[in-house]
Amino acid sequence: MCFQMPESLTGYIFPWHKLVVACSPGEMKQEINGKKETVKGFNVKLQDTILFPEGGGQPDDHGLIGDVPVLRVTRQGAEAVHFVSSALEVGQEVQLKVDWERRFDHMQQHSGQHLITAIAESMFGYKTTSWELGRQRSTIELDTPSMKPAQMEALEVAVNEKIRAHVPVAVQVLSLDDPALEQVRSRGLPDDAAGPIRIIDIEGVDVNMCCGTHVSNLSHLQVIKLLGTEKGKKNKTNLLFLVGNRVLKYAEKSYSTERSLVSLLKTGPDYHVDTVDKIQKTVKGLQKSNLGLLRDVAVLIETLVFLTVGEEKGPGLFLLAGPSGKVSELGPRVLEMLQGKGAGKNGRFQGKVNSMARRGEVETLIQEHCKNEQ
After folding, report:
1. Which residues pair with 351 in a beta bridge?
2. Which tens digit of pLDDT belongs to each residue from 92-115?
3. How far apart (Å, rounded) are the C-alpha atoms in residues 249 and 356?
4. Is this model's pTM higher than 0.85 or not?
């Protein structure tokens, strides 16, 4: 499908009236608060539909059947199945509306993918082997082990030049035996494909089989931003990209983050990287210092400290510190050996002595005690 841009890009548009041809109980997996849960509802088939069923790398449309929200649209052969929460009467004529904001976003991303794929192949010979239209950003898998930054920059310039050139995008429908199909780019048809083949023709740029929704002119893409690459499967490279309104939202979010960092770091945007680098190095240094202090504390907790002040064989002062039990046991013996007076509590024993002559013996006593405790 190719559409002209409507005046409004919000709300529900393109109302159609069609008959309900089937309605049966069903269920679907839905993510609720980060967890996948089974939701019960009804599978509805209509005489025809304007809602795109998921396929070809593109998610499905959302919308309304009457006033009932359509939660998912899938394809069964040539038919679309709409999952809704309420039953609909078979034979009833209903009005369909499509969620245009979601539809147009998908149109921009999908047409943007066709453009990037075509230009990447013509410039570098890199073929697209698959792609995914994600919720936040989209990915093209290229058949190359790597992509140089200069190549990505040149590719981005080239695709945006095509957007500014206002290139038309048209739909063709060809039969399976049409010779023109030989000139069409394709990654193959689904096993259950039936009927004529739908072609998306970007004038002078690309002709490709596709069932998805597209813009009618490349100018509707507004802009394409290539975010970077990631290592893909064996010998593949994943190219990340944004198109149109997603680029504007990305810029708005990036600016908001930038202003927050200015406030937190007290520096301008040009200095954010250097400032964060300095902070990380400072934190790393403090962590290393703290680790050293913790080790010292651990040693002190298990070690007896014996300090003395005075001449070798004359009077002086001493301090014995360490675990309370050890200090209480050894303190009186040290006092006796050094012929002094003193007292202690809470892991500290100190006193005044008459002679330091036996200080060596005291050190030996303490060392042997520590060895026996190990």
Report:
1. 318, 342
2. 999 999 999 999 999 999 999 999
3. 80
4. no
Number of Cβ within a 10 Å radius of residue 108 = 26
Distance CA 58, CA 138 (A): 10
- Helix boundaries (H) for the chain: 100-124, 149-164, 245-265, 272-302, 324-337, 359-373
DSSP string, 140-209: EEESSS---HHHHHHHHHHHHHHHHTT-BEEEEEE-TT-GGGGGSB-S---TT--SSEEEEEETTTEEEE
Using the Cα atoms of residue 132, residue 133, residue 135 and residue 137 in order, give the sign of their dihedral: positive
Higher pLDDT, 174 or 115: 115
CA distance 268 to 343: 62
- The 10 Å CB-count burial string (b at 16+, else e) for 244-273 is bbbbeeeeeeeeeeeeebeeebeeeeeebe
Q: Please give the backbone phi and psi of residue 345, each rounded to the nearest 5 degrees, phi first.
A: -165, 160
How far is residue 172's CA from residue 205's CA, in Å, rounded to a whole number? 15
H helices, E strands: number in the chain: 6, 19
Q: CA–CA distance from 341 to each of 197, 217, 229 (Å)?
A: 106, 100, 78
Confidence category of residue 228, pLDDT binned at 50, 70, 90:
very high
The three-state secondary structure class of 271 is helix
Mean pLDDT computed over every residue of the chain: 87
Cα separation, 240 vs 116, in Å, equals 11
